[in-house]
Write a structure and sequence with these properties.
This protein is α/β, with parallel strands linked by helices. The protein has two domains: 38 residues; 212 residues, 3-Layer(aba) Sandwich (Rossmann fold), CATH 3.40.50. The protein is 35% helix and 12% strand. The chain is built from ten helices and six strands, in the order H-H-E-H-E-H-E-H-E-H-H-H-E-E-H-H. The chain has a six-stranded parallel beta sheet, with helices on both faces. The longest helix is centred in the first third of the chain and has 17 residues.
Length: 260
């Protein structure tokens, strides 16, 4: 009788162990458990862009969570479309250093204007060393023509115009953020960042992605983009692609048509 109870207890304990989410039953066959658990797994903060909400990051968030990452998002006031980039950086600082105060290793994955907000926060407001990795997707690091035609009431949009004071400030110190590794993903068919090459970040590792339907918003749901983001977050080496530098003077030239 006692032997039967012990056997039952042992089986129940084993079943309980294997039922823990993210444990052995979720690992593909042939995976080295010790290697997987040793891989980097930072807390991921997804940052949306201009005139948007955290819903824009939903697909990418879902994929990362399925891959085992703990993720959260931020919602900027006024849909991130009215205040200055510096103001939104204050909101991001509060999110990182107050809401995520218990997280020692934070990776920011930012889309569009969210990348500029992240850079401003790290360059000017950071009080902790929590953020060690930044991945931008379709961020107009050197501005976009869209910023010049945006409503004047949108201060942050105007700050994204090529040659703006804010962009010159950021690009004067780009990549110069101790303890933070930068990566930038962009596509020649962005459609919102004009010219598309302005999404290249000097001082970062840049990844040019192409493919049918690849554009400013669809990059967030792209498997290709996810694979790059996932590998970087895991601490794996990813081959850079496309140009790695963007000439500041060239970036500020007024371009309306591709052949100019």
């Amino acid at each position: 009788m006692e032997k039967s109870i012990l056997v039952t207890a042992a089986v129940a304990a084993l079943f309980s162990l294997l039922s823990i989410p993210g444990y052995a039953q979720d690992l593909p066959r042939g995976i080295d458990i010790a290697r997987v658990t040793a891989e980097r797994k930072p807390h991921v903060l997804l940052v949306h862009g201009w005139l948007a909400t955290s819903l824009d990051m939903s697909v990418l968030k879902y994929k990362l969570e399925q891959a085992g990452f703990e993720c959260e998002t931020i919602n900027f006031s006024y849909l991130g479309a009215v205040s200055s980039i510096a103001d939104y950086a204050v909101e991001l600082a509060r999110k990182v250093e107050v809401d995520c105060a218990g997280k020692a290793d934070v990776a920011i994955v930012a889309h569009s204007m969210g990348g500029l907000v992240t850079r401003y926060y790290l360059d000017n407001l950071r009080q902790t060393a929590q953020v060690s990795l930044v991945i931008t997707i379709g961020t107009p690091h050197h501005g976009t023509l869209s910023g010049k035609i945006a409503p004047t009431a949108s201060r942050c949009a105007r700050e994204m115009a090529p040659g703006s004071e804010l962009l010159r400030l950021l690009n004067a110190q780009e990549g110069d953020c101790p303890g933070v590794e930068f990566h930038a993903i962009w596509t020649p068919t962005d459609g919102v960042v004009i010219p598309a090459e302005n999404a290249i970040m000097c001082g970062a590792k840049n990844y040019q992605v192409t493919g049918f339907g690849m554009a400013h918003m669809t990059m967030l749901a792209s498997d290709t983009v996810f694979e790059i983001v996932h590998a970087i977050l895991r601490g794996q080496d990813v081959d850079v692609s496309g140009p790695q530098l963007r000439d500041h003077t060239e970036a500020e030239k007024p371009v309306v048509f591709p052949w100019q």
